[in-house]
Design brief:
2 domains; 14 strands; 6-stranded parallel beta sheet; Rossmann fold; single chain; 15 helices; alpha/beta; 396 residues; 8-stranded mixed beta sheet; disordered C terminus
Length: 396
C-alpha cells in the first residue's frame, strides 16, 4: 500500500476549541493508523513545527479575530504557499471556508487532489448574523458553488449540512458522519460525587457544554432553566465552556442556580458531568453535527437540541428537538424526564454506538481516494478511533 502525505489546514483551532479540535485529532490518528502521514497546519501566536503525540502539527503565526474570544485565522498567503510547496502533499484537506478558500486553486494548479470539509452551514450562519433570508441564500449559493468548483470533493457530516450544496446541484459531494469516543464517554463515567456537587437527591441536573459564543445560543439553556424553575421543577444548570458571551450569560443567570465551570481541559471530568446529568442541552441553531451532544449520548444522557440544527438527525429518538425559545426547551426537557430513566439512558447509549470513529476515518479516506488498510489494528487509535496519547496543543 502506498502511504500518502495528507496535509490538513484548519482555522479557528485553539487549546480551548471543541468539536473541530476533536475531529482533527481523531481523524489524523485514524489516517496514521491506516498507514498514511497526516500533517496538520493551524494558526497560532508563534511559528512551530512539532510532534504532538504521534502527529506532526505545524503552527503559523496568525492574528486574533476580534470578538471571538481568541480564535485566529491564517491570512498570509505567501508563508502558507511556501509551506505547502515544501511539504509536497499527496492530498489536501481544508477545514475552513473563510481565508483558506484559495488553497483549492493552489492544489489544482499543483496536481494535488483536494477536499474541503464543510463544518458549518453558510446559510445558517448568515441568518444568525442577521442577513435577510433571500439575500443570505443567494450569497451562500454563490460561495458554495465556488467551493464546489474549486475543490475535488466537498465533505459534509450530516444531510442537514449537505442540503445547501444539494440545493445548487453539487455533484462532487460526499456525506461522512463524525464519530465519538465510546470508551472515554461511557455510562460508567456517571459519578454520584460529581452530581452531589450541584444537586441534592431528587433534583434535576442539566448540563450545557459548548463554546459560549452567539451562534451557539447558550442563553437558551439559561432561559430553559428559568422556565423549569418557574414551573416548580428543582433544576440546576452547569455550563461547561467559555467564550465571549460568558459575562452576558452570568448576568442573565443572576438569581438562578447556574454554575459556570469555564473551559475544562480534563476530558474525564467533562465525561463525568455529562454522564451524571439528567439531560444535556444543545441549543445551537446552526450546528452541523454536534460532537458534544453525541458525547452526552455516549454517556447515556439524552439531549434536547435545537430543531433548526442538524442535531435532530444525529440524536434520533434518543433526544428531542425544540424550537428556539427557553419555554420550548423546558417543555422538551420535561418530556425526556417523563421517560423511565433506564429506558432513556439505554436509548442514548445505543444511538451513540452507531457513530464509531473507525467508520468516519474510512469514509474520509475514501473521499480522498486514499487506500484504506483493512488490516489496520483497531487498537492503533482506540476501539472507537481515538488516538492513544497526545493532545492537539497549538500555541496560544
Amino acid at each position: 500500500m502506498t502511504a500518502l502525505r495528507i496535509v490538513r489546514l484548519a482555522n479557528f483551532v485553539t487549546p480551548r476549541s471543541g468539536g473541530l479540535r476533536t475531529a482533527l485529532r481523531c481523524l489524523g490518528a485514524g489516517y496514521r493508523a491506516a498507514g498514511h502521514e497526516p500533517v496538520l497546519v493551524i494558526p497560532g501566536e508563534r511559528a512551530s513545527d512539532e510532534m504532538i503525540g504521534p502527529d506532526r502539527v505545524i503552527t503559523l503565526p496568525a492574528p486574533v479575530v476580534p470578538g471571538t474570544g481568541g480564535y485566529r485565522v491564517l491570512v498570509g498567503r505567501a508563508p502558507l504557499r511556501q509551506l505547502l510547496e515544501a511539504l509536497g502533499p499527496d492530498r489536501l484537506e481544508v477545514s475552513d471556508r473563510s481565508t483558506l478558500r484559495w488553497t483549492g486553486a493552489w492544489a489544482r494548479a499543483h496536481g494535488v487532489p483536494s477536499l474541503m470539509v464543510s463544518h458549518e452551514s453558510l446559510t445558517g450562519l448568515l441568518g444568525v448574523w442577521g442577513t435577510p433570508a433571500p439575500l443570505g441564500q443567494r450569497l451562500a449559493d454563490r460561495l458554495n458553488a465556488r467551493s464546489a468548483a474549486t475543490y475535488d470533493q466537498i465533505v459534509c457530516t450530516t444531510g442537514w449540512a449537505a442540503a445547501e450544496f444539494r440545493r445548487i446541484g453539487t455533484s462532487n459531494l460526499t456525506q461522512v458522519p463524525l464519530g465519538v469516543d465510546l470508551e472515554a464517554f461511557h455510562p460508567d463515567r456517571r459519578n454520584p460525587e460529581v452530581r452531589a456537587e450541584y444537586v441534592a437527591d431528587g433534583e434535576v441536573l442539566l448540563v450545557h457544554c459548548s463554546r459560549l459564543s452567539p451562534e451557539k445560543r447558550p442563553e437558551l439553556a439559561v432561559d430553559a432553566l428559568a422556565a423549569l424553575r418557574a414551573a416548580g421543577v428543582p433544576a440546576t444548570l452547569v455550563v461547561v465552556g467559555d467564550g465571549p458571551r460568558r459575562g452576558a450569560l452570568a448576568q442573565r443567570a443572576a438569581g438562578l442556580p447556574v454554575h459556570f465551570t469555564g473551559f475544562l481541559p480534563d476530558r474525564d471530568r467533562v465525561a463525568a458531568l455529562l454522564a451524571s446529568a439528567d439531560v444535556v442541552v444543545a441549543p445551537g441553531p446552526v450546528e452541523t453535527f454536534g460532537l458534544a451532544g453525541l458525547e452526552a449520548l455516549a454517556c447515556g444522557t439524552p439531549v434536547v437540541v435545537n430543531a433548526a440544527s442538524a442535531l435532530p438527525e444525529v440524536v434520533g429518538d434518543a433526544g428531542l428537538g425544540a424550537d428556539g425559545t427557553g419555554a420550548a426547551f423546558a417543555e422538551a426537557i420535561g418530556a425526556l424526564l417523563a421517560r423511565s430513566e433506564p429506558v432513556r439512558r439505554a436509548a442514548a447509549r445505543a444511538r451513540a454506538e452507531g457513530f464509531g470513529w473507525s467508520a468516519s476515518v474510512e469514509g474520509f479516506l475514501r473521499a480522498h481516494d486514499a487506500p484504506v488498510r483493512s488490516d489496520a489494528p483497531v487498537g492503533a487509535y482506540g476501539r472507537s478511533g481515538v488516538p492513544q496519547g497526545g493532545e492537539l496543543r497549538p500555541n496560544a
